[in-house]
Write a structure and sequence with these properties.
The complex is a heterotetramer of chains A (208), B (100), C (266) and D (604). By secondary structure, chain C is of the alpha+beta class. Chain C is built from 5 helices and 10 strands. In chain D, the strands form 2 sheets. A two-stranded antiparallel sheet of chain D has the order 2-3. Classes of the chains: A mainly alpha (208), B mainly alpha (100), C alpha+beta (266), D mainly alpha (604).
Amino acid sequence: MSQSAIAAVTHHEVVMEASPYAMDKKKLGMWVFIVSDACSFAAFLFAYGYMRVGAPVWGTPFGFSSILNGVVMTAVLLSSSLTMLAATHASQTGEKASAGKWLGITMLLGTIFAALHLREWFKLIAEGWRLFYNPAGGAAQFGAAFFSVTGLHLTHVVTGVIVLAFIARGYRQGRYDETHVETAGLYWHFVDLVWMFVFPLMYLMNAH
Amino acid sequence: MSSNRELTMSSYVGIGIGLMVIVLIEVILTYQHLPTRTLLFSVLSLACLEAFVAIMYLMHVKYERPLLFWTIFPATLFVFVFLCYIWPDAFRMFSMRLLQ
Amino acid sequence: MAGKIFAVVVALITIVTAYCVIAHVWWMPVDISVHGPKIDHQIEETVLVAGLLFIAGQVVLAAFVFLYGGARNRIKQIPGGAKPLIVFAFLLVGTEIVALSFIGSKAWGAVYFEAPDPASMRVDVQAGQFAYYFRYPGPDGKFGSLHPDLINEGNQNYFGLDTDHDADAKDDIVTAELAIPVNKPILLTLHSKDVGHSFYARELRIQQDFVPGLNIPVHFTATQTGRFEIVCTQLCGLGHYNMKAYLSVLSPSDFDDWLRKQASMQ
Amino acid sequence: MFAATAEKNIFLGVKIMPATAAQAAVHHAPPQGFIRKYIFSVDHKVIGIQYLTMSLVAVFVGMALSWAMRIHLAWPDAHIPLLGWLSPSGAPGGLMTPEYYLSLMTMHGTIMAFFVLTAAPLAGFGNFILPIQVGAADMAFPRLNMSSFWVTLVGFILACATFFIPDGPPLSGWTAYAPLSAVGSVAGPGQGWGQNLWGLSIVCFCIASLLGALNFIVTTLDLRTKGMTLPRLPLSTWGWFIDAWVSLLAFAVLLPTCLLLVLDRLAGTSFFIPSGLVINDQLQPHSGGSPLLFQHLFWFFGHPEVYIIILPAFGIVSHIMPTFIRKPLVGGWKVITFAEVAVGTLSFVVWGHHMFVSGMSPFMAMVFSVPTLFITIPSVIAVLVWVFSLYHANIRFDTPLLFSLGFVSLFISGGIGGFFLAQPSTDSYLHATSFVVGHFHFTMGLSAIFATLAGFYYWFPKMFGRMMNEKLGKVHFWLSFVLVYCVFMTMHLTGFAGAVRRYSALVDDFMVPLIPANKFMTIAALLLGATQFIFLFNAIWSRFKGPKAPNNPWDATTLEWDTTSPPPFDNFGGRQITVYHGPMEYDGEASVMQTSPAESVAGT
């Protein structure tokens, strides 16, 4: 148990009813957030599906290079999940130093993912793709759907990196304990999980 | 707090590799020139499999109390399932559009 | 005291409301369509079912509040607790619901599931801010195709017809009033020029939105001649309140004269 | 070893939650300084009062808007100087233009639905009361709680700002149907920056509601004090808890919907705008979108929203009634809670009944119609519970109970209208008539307002330590109750004559005969509004001059009445609270506090 928590308990005994989930309330809160965020992503993806079903012609712009790029991005994000797990694991066994190290690596991988993704974006923009324009002919919705869905995911990744930075700093200074790291980890895995749907639906379904 | 002590780091790496393999299968499927619908359903079901593994092991719901699973899954699936009520109109839109 | 007043007030409200409904103080106009009676019947059924629940609910509430004010009553729950209430809700309301949706689905099906009569007269309806325009195919029985880029209020090309190159479009008759022959099946295709609108003809018991980008079919048969209002019920902008057209149901001969007159004015 | 202790304590049935304790420790010392205490406070009580104050402002703004609209409907050439000052273009010389009427209507709907009906019963009372009722020192995430209030306030300010930009407020209704709301200023005045601000305001509100819902859920699940098992939760807490789940899932869908709408407006995407629209003789650049998609996504949120508004009302009324009828509700906590869960669940599968005539697939109309009718069953069960609990009761007619009874009566009347609007065949005649307006003002509007007022009269002593004036309260109730029926029952009835809603003037041949009825409604509405000033005066006067309130003025049994009025910073002054009973321990004059070890009198 972290120092602050021990201090708190001895300082102010509050006997509570058992949490039905037997988990820290930050974790439970993160799970509830994940449920709602999943629904938000679902709404985006359903809108994309609706557009696509309703469209008479739907272009499929992605060449093999883009798909390959996507595969690399997936690999990066997946391994970042693993390093995040390592960080959580280390923090729970009290190895502060290695936990910090793993958090750093996770942030690095997250940044690489974002960079690769932006490269893909700029490639498309250079080819003339816009939110409202489809240079390859076919429905103009492709740009709209692709940029908005992946943009939302990218925002989540960037936010995640920033959050991890704060957590790492606070953890090193002892303001945060292992539950903070674990909670941040949950969020990070969720971002990874969303990508497992975004990649096939946004990239693979649009490969020619 | 039940942590992920139940699994060792190495087994997590194994899971990560497994997930990566599923992604590669999806990519290979993409280039089999399947009809769009078949491709969609196959990659979607594979993605659901991945998601399940990720939730159960990476987010170690498997090692939390079952109640957690029975809270988050019904709630989320509920929304996904009933959002599907929009599909009939998507298909109508295709057939009833004013300017073909 | 307060309880007695409450009971009386609730009772009065119930009586006045019931009276207004039963006496048809404000009520639907006479129906002029073939499918209309089914809808009217459904509305009356619902008035009966819902009305009984309304009166029962308010009266029981009023009665209990009237009876059990003050501190003198011996506290006890209704015999059997909540079970009879739940059973009542499920049985009575449940059966009412099933009955309503069963009959109602027939009325709905009569309007929307029956395919339009192949011999029905086709009229193309376009809604725009803030007017309706109606298009009759003319002698060739074919509608010219639409070109939104050609739409121009100035030269009265409301539909965007290409009369120079499109033979079908040449003889299309565009009017500001919907005239139809009585007792003839009519098939309207509704489409919007700009935003969402709606086609609401109370006497026809028809309300159908225009969905921009889609062709929405509506079919009906009018059984009485006369002149009726068609109004917009889908918020479409500042002129919404004033967006309307007239529906003239004419005898076949009058209709032919009318159509000839319109054609000559094109 | 932390895990170990946790497991051990769960085994004992009691669990020490270090994080919670830490929370309490941190909050043991109240913050110093005015700003930290009353402005940027993390104290759930202050935040609750902030929410309620915002809603109070909002409700009077919304009411003023409805006044202007009603006056314009009854006397189209009436001059309202204030409007002329507010918007020289919208109301030149105080004479309202049709587009300004629609703007006022839009803002009335938006402000009332979001910033009053959603904010006050759930965020307002929920924040103040829920943590106390479960015996917690504060919400689970106090800082998050504070931020959700401030984000809501930003949303409210953005919404109000639309009145003061040259463009004026949007005119596409609170449902903001695309493409009218999506194509931009070409669609009419207010559709430029007015609509943009509207969209951003709703985005803020969504985010705030999501954070708030998250907070309520975790607080209810994890911060219950010793002995406060789920069956012992007060029914108001049940209402807020279920409501939090509904709003968590519903707002999660409105958020992306609004984002897509904003994208369509600002970034040129075409999610909701089809090809070839010609507006004001200008061919729009968009192509391939679908207005129906917007309606589906909006109503997927929009219908649960109705229940997000009414579920806290269910909870508050079920909580207040036993106190004043001096007996538990029929069926105890189980039946009413089952009804609330059923209503909340079904509310997600019925949204299509808003779209019967919208061009949706007629087969889907049937699919949506059946659950819509079936949702009446749990609603009827709830009503039966409230009504039949009065059997052999000892009713005390204090103002909170009067408003609760008014709620029940209004909810019955409103629910009846549901039968007509749930069936596509009858709805196709009544859709978009004033019948609908009357219906939703009864069910979600006035019912929720009555429950909120009941809660306000009930909890005011706890919030401010002073009693409200009973006489004024009763006058307020009787006038409101009668006038509400005069306004909205008349709307139901004129609906049968096909009176179309959202018309800024009654010019159609069949609308003209309805003008007298509209004059009657207008007068009643003006009086109804005037009545609310009695309430406002009562609240403000009692806040400062009212008699001091005892800890438990209503001999109620739940935790909020077991502490001082107003409660100390950590709610119980560091006492260990232990709960022994359910919330409805009433038997005539006798009652047992949840915290008292004495034996049960009601056998709950």
